[in-house]
Specification:
The structure holds two protein chains of two kinds.
Chain A lengths: L11 H9 L5 H13 L7 E4 L1 H16 L10 E5 L26 H8 L3 E6 L38 H8 L5 E6 L5 H6 L3 E4 L19 E6 L2 H11 L29 E5 L9 H16 L3 E5 L7 H16 L18 H12 L2 H14 L4 H25 L2 E5 L15 H5 L6 H6 L3 E8 L5 E8 L4 H15 L13
Parallel strand pairs in A: 2-3, 2-4, 7-8, 7-9
Antiparallel strand pairs in A: 1-3, 4-6, 5-6, 5-10, 9-11, 10-11
Chain B lengths: L4 H10 L6 H18 L34 H5 L5 E2 L2 E2 L7
Antiparallel strand pairs in B: 1-2
Classes of the chains: A alpha/beta, B mainly alpha.
């Protein structure tokens, strides 16, 4: 076990082992993270910090550890994306609409995490209602990526929508964090911050108490420093929940057990359609390197085809806004959320509360969604998109006849500068080109840091698996991690800012 | 297929979003750019393809049709921007 000088730099797994070995206390770990968060406010990674609750949690955890009754995440300080409802702790979804919203209930996934003994450090910043790929649509301002290009001091985005979670993991402000992923919102920020993120199979984690964006695509997952950490945390987050009828009632295998196993004979598919025009050559180079790492550990590389890949993004930008327009209809200025001052009548109450409470990207998606579902356009857009979605899902089923996992790049580029892509929605949407197919088909996908761009910025590789086969995805991801030997070396430039 | 400004306003009304003239103009431009981009879906022959309704094959569970939750109106009112007792307050609807 590596024991870093600064406890906030611990991996989740090492911290767990150190706590059990009593070489560090939860109090020490938690204090170190609270200190790191306080020194990193210029990154804007948190919307709400909960230091008092964290210290109380740490004290309880240390008491349990002393009694020898430690649970799987006992005393480990975590950050939670501000999309998970946390009882008594403000939950904003990155929106003015929910600026003052304090849930009276706890999401199932976070309840699972607290039941396992973890400590809440705070709620992380995110794109408004998880709609964005750069964390720039947040009402609370953009998050800054702890990584900078070599020799430069320009602020870069941490990806999105789980940008605050990604930045707090990459900047060692917490040991691990939760994210949610509707079109790439765990994997894309993980890739551009040099962290690990897994979107499990649709139905693996309960969606109950997670503020809804697009219900047929949304899934929660862990964002961590290592693949072993992701396995440890997913173990706790996953499982059937009677409160979410789409959560699947099948056993959750032991994700950590098989992690170090051999990948000899594992068939790794390389989908040719993921080679896109205009992507920097270093993306292709890294992808080929990833395949050769797996091959040298005994995997068999197979060429496969996912012919409808190019239609995935346009399908997503019909299906996701359609579901969002429906889900976000609940914000009416009456029951919770922002309410306009002195409306003339009920219609004005609705229209102004929503116009004031929602930001530009959210309004854009509500309008698109309402349009594609409106009478006369429903068949041309929504039904056609759902048919294409069937074809995209069938592509994967066919590909998995010839292979066990797929290997692709995670993103088409490294992190980009703040404000460089906000003018053109479609160019922003293209960030999710490699991740969105996985949501449409409901499959598990993992991003693992694999190398650096020519500018010295992290790049990730994505492993996609069969439905409910997260165990194999994690094992293949661990094999890449082992070979890549990626170094999380960000200097804490922000603490002097 | 491109939309005009009146259509944007009609859709905004359906979505209960107040938009002024200028915002409707911006929204029209952006909406048309996105609609032009999704137009590429028309090149695929989808005849005979069933629309996807569920990504994971599963049978929804059945349970007894009984009340399993509730009985805490105060919790439900806690985040209401305007309320009286356990009632939500809205502008006068009936004269």
């Amino acid at each position: 076990m590596v024991q870093p000088a600064d406890p906030a730099k611990f991996t989740l797994t090492d911290a767990r082992d150190a706590i059990r070995a009593k070489s560090i206390s939860s109090r020490e770990l938690t204090e170190a993270c609270i200190g790191a968060i306080g020194a990193a406010r210029s990154l804007n990674a948190f919307v709400t910090e909960t230091p008092e609750r964290a210290m109380e949690g740490a004290a309880e955890a240390d008491a349990r550890i002393a009694k020898g009754s430690a649970r799987p995440l006992e005393g480990l300080p975590l950050a939670i994306k501000d999309l998970f409802c946390t009882k008594g702790v403000r939950t904003t979804a990155g929106s003015r609409m929910l600026d003052n919203f304090v849930p009276t209930y706890e999401s199932t996934v976070t309840q699972n995490i607290w039941d396992a003994g973890a400590v809440l450090l705070g709620k992380t910043n995110m794109d408004e209602f998880a709609m964005g790929s750069s964390n720039e649509t947040s009402f609370f301002g953009p998050v800054i990526n702890p990584w900078r290009a070599r020799g430069r001091n320009e602020d870069l985005v941490p990806g999105g929508s789980s940008g605050g979670s990604a930045a707090s993991v990459a900047g060692d402000l917490c040991l691990a964090a939760t994210g949610t992923d509707t079109g790439g919102s765990i994997r894309q920020p993980a890739a551009v911050t040099g962290t690990v993120g897994i979107k499990p199979t649709y139905g693996r984690c309960s969606r109950w108490g997670i503020i809804a964006f697009a219900s047929s695509l949304d899934q929660a997952g862990p964002m961590t420093k290592t693949v072993a950490d992701a396995a440890l945390m997913l173990q706790v987050m996953a499982g059937h929940d009677p409160k979410d009828s789409t959560s699947v009632d099948i056993p959750v295998p032991d994700y950590s057990a098989g992690l170090e196993g051999s990948i000899k004979g594992l068939r790794v598919g390389i989908p040719k359609e993921y080679r896109i025009d205009g992507a920097p050559p270093e993306i292709d180079t890294l992808w080929a390197k990833g395949a050769s790492w797996l091959k040298s550990q005994g995997a068999e590389i197979v060429d496969v085809s996912l012919p409808h890949t190019k239609y995935a993004l346009p399908v997503y930008y019909i299906v996701a806004p359609a579901e969002a327009s429906s889900n976000l209809a609940r914000y009416d200025g009456v029951r919770f959320g922002h309410r306009t001052e002195s409306p003339r009548d009920l219609l004005e109450l609705y229209e102004k509360s929503r116009a004031e409470g929602f930001g530009r990207e959210v309004k854009r998606r509500i309008i698109i969604g309402t349009y594609v579902l409106s009478s006369g356009y429903y068949d041309a857009y929504y039904v056609r998109a759902q048919k294409l979605r069937t074809l995209i899902a069938q592509d994967f089923t066919r590909a998995f006849e010839a292979c066990d996992v797929l290997l692709t790049p995670s993103t088409p580029s490294a992190a980009f500068a703040v404000n460089s892509k906000t003018a053109d929605p479609v160019s922003m949407y293209l960030n999710d080109v490699f991740t969105v197919t996985v949501n449409l088909a409901g499959l598990p996908g993992l991003s693992v840091p694999a190398g650096l761009s020519s500018e010295g910025l992290p790049l990730g590789l994505q492993v996609i698996g069969k439905a409910f086969d997260e165990a194999t995805v994690l094992k293949a991801g661990r094999a890449i991690e082992r070979a890549a030997d990626f170094k999380h070396d960000v200097s804490r430039w922000w603490s002097t800012r | 297929m491109s939309v005009d400004k009146d259509t944007v306003k009609r859709i905004a009304r359906l979505a209960r979003l107040a938009l002024d003239e200028e915002q409707a103009g911006h929204m029209q431009t952006e909406l048309n750019a996105i609609l032009a981009w999704v137009q590429q879906l028309d090149e695929v022959d989808v005849s005979g393809v069933a629309p996807l309704t569920s990504v994971v094959e599963q049978r929804l569970k059945m349970r007894d049709d009984v009340v399993t939750d509730g009985g805490y109106p105060e919790d439900l009112m806690k985040n209401a921007p305007l309320s009286e007792g356990t009632f939500f307050v809205v502008p006068k609807v009936v004269e």
